[in-house]
Specification:
The structure is a homodimer of 323-residue chains. With 323 residues, chain A is α/β, with parallel strands linked by helices. Chain A has two domains: 40-262, 3-Layer(aba) Sandwich (Rossmann fold); 276-322, no CATH class. The first copy, chain A, is built from 13 helices and seven strands. Chain A has helices at residues 3-8, 12-23, 27-36, 56-68, 95-106, 126-140, 155-161, 177-187, 203-216, 243-260, 262-290, 295-304, 310-322, and strands spanning 44-50, 81-87, 113-119, 145-151, 166-171, 192-195, 232-234. Chain A has a seven-stranded parallel β-sheet with strand order 3-2-4-1-5-6-7, sandwiched between helices. In chain A, helix 5 (95-106) links the parallel strand 2 (81-87) and strand 3 (113-119). The first copy, chain A, is globular and about 65 Å long. At the A-B interface, helix 3, helix 5, helix 7, helix 8 and helix 11 of A face helix 3, helix 5, helix 7, helix 8 and helix 11 of B.
Chain lengths: 323, 323
């Protein structure tokens, strides 16, 4: 049986192998993903993002347990759940692996759950690209929900999280004024807002501030289509308080997207962004391969020595490429 | 007099105009920057990064005041200081402008200080590119120190901060386990570590944890050359405690880089990264311009409809480009 067939039949070892191939950016990984592609498009992609200190990982664990519990949210049976934990600031991460083990133990023995951490390899773009590939793999393997958890509130993480169908942004009381300053940007990607650690002092105020900011905010480009009112929810992940409401809000947003046509619109943005990134990455690699050996380094040295401006170096490179 | 000449003579209005041109990515901005380029290479670029809630902005303000004070750190006179405050999660930011005003008032009337906030325009890469251009402009305008302050701990911010000569990473007690998990990655870019808010409970422990992690950490690619021992400093930015030590550590690192050859090595990495990004961005734009109208959208739709795998769409685009 091929790797593709095994994955489609729910073979977890085969899936794990594909994920490794994708992380290594192997040719077999890319080919398998291509074969699997017609079987994708069913999973609900849920981005969960928030600054460090918001209790994001605990919340995600609680949420997974809620989705997997015997009490269904709708009339349907419990959905299977894959979690991609993106930790971009840990390039050679021992941290991610340790985190994985702790989580694995917590949710062990449930065949409907698959958790995979991912640390950054290389530079900008690589992480988003691998996250996209992982998402497709889980989708094809039949997981109903794919949770993409990103640490931090930087542009790369925001991009990754906002490529999902549903984006949940987590806040917590007492994180200082930086977080306040970030609100404007965060509101533009949030479909659901959560104030976690609601048992801490200042929680009520954090909630009201967010609700007010929500009313003042201009709707951003990703909030299409109109008609969704962004809920601001209170949770205490450590006790499980409010998790039911959050799980329900995610399911409500799914139904809204399906009924309003937003599901397809978001998919299109995701495909477009990914194709553009892959194209840029290919064009750069191809261009560099065709350059005369040492040419790039010579130009870099000339720029470092102030003999050439960066733009002049770029133009020189492009003239070379034309020949 | 040309804009270039005015900037070289220290005309602040001319500098402000160039920054706006660079943010708008205008042709005149790019040309002026090219003319200014031979006059760059003197400034000490200092990246300051840390998660929200670490008190970064207050610390940067204190640091600027310390550098500008009448008590010199070395025998030299007080250096002039430019600050670039990068706030990537605020795409349509009113926040950045408000922050600017508060800071301006605080450091008003000092001609040796220039503060400029920058919000994200567009997608990945643009921010790093504009930050690089701003840095060059301040360098050419004769600022001795350029502080690049980034919010968050995501990949993009890490990339921006670590493109400096000296990277200061700020931590604070009580930010939760996410921050702990991020330590591994952060250590690889830090030249100087700071535990701010040292008056809070748990500060001593945070300091010791960092010191221990430092001993366990593998040196990352950017820690070249060998011989620098990363100091872990305690500060209370609100009172100014420890700021002297931090300013001194930054100056020590500068001397170390100059003496060890690390100064040039870091410059080369920065130029290389920037040239590669600019090249990728140009190649993509050029490729898209030469495509038949509507071709990209058609392929995107085929991928969304699962008639074509993303890789097959990429190959189809590349075949088009060859013709």
């Amino acid at each position: 049986m091929t790797l593709t067939e095994r994955i489609l039949q729910g073979d977890r070892l085969a899936l794990a192998r594909l994920l490794s191939e994708l992380e290594d950016q192997s040719t077999q990984g890319a080919e398998t993903l291509g074969d699997l592609y017609p079987h994708t498009g069913k999973a609900h992609l849920i981005g969960i993002t928030g600054a460090p200190g918001t209790g994001k990982s605990t919340l995600v664990n609680r949420l997974v347990k809620r989705f997997r519990s015997n009490t269904p949210l709708n009339s349907s049976p419990a959905p299977s759940v894959a979690v991609i934990a993106v930790d971009p600031s840990s390039p050679f991460s021992g941290g991610a692996i340790l985190g994985d083990r702790i989580r694995m133990r917590d949710l062990a023995g449930d065949a409907g759950v698959f958790i995979r951490s991912m640390a950054s390899r290389g530079k900008l773009g690589g992480l988003a690209s691998t996250t996209g590939a992982f998402t497709m793999a889980f989708d094809a393997a039949g997981f109903d929900l794919v949770l993409i958890e990103t640490v931090g509130a930087g542009q790369a993480e925001v991009d990754i999280a906002s490529s999902a169908h549903t984006t949940v942004v987590i806040d917590a009381p007492g994180l200082g004024d930086d977080v306040q300053a970030n609100k404007a940007g965060i509101l533009e990607i949030a479909d659901i807002m959560v104030v976690n650690k609601f048992d801490l002092p200042g929680a009520e105020r954090a909630l009201r501030t967010l609700e007010m900011a929500m009313h003042l905010a201009q709707p951003g480009p990703s909030t299409l289509p109109a008609g969704w009112e962004i809920p601001v929810l209170a949770t205490v992940a450590t006790t499980g308080e409010g998790i039911d409401n959050l799980a329900q809000a995610i399911m409500n947003h799914r139904r809204f997207l399906k009924e309003s046509g937003g599901w397809g619109a978001r998919e299109q943005i995701r495909v477009e962004t990914q194709l553009r990134q892959d194209l840029a990455s290919f064009l750069l690699g191809d261009f560099m391969d065709r350059l005369v050996e040492g040419r790039f380094d010579t130009l870099v040295k000339a720029v470092v020595d102030r003999q050439l401006a960066p733009l002049a170096a770029l133009e020189a490179l492009l003239r070379d490429g034309d020949q």
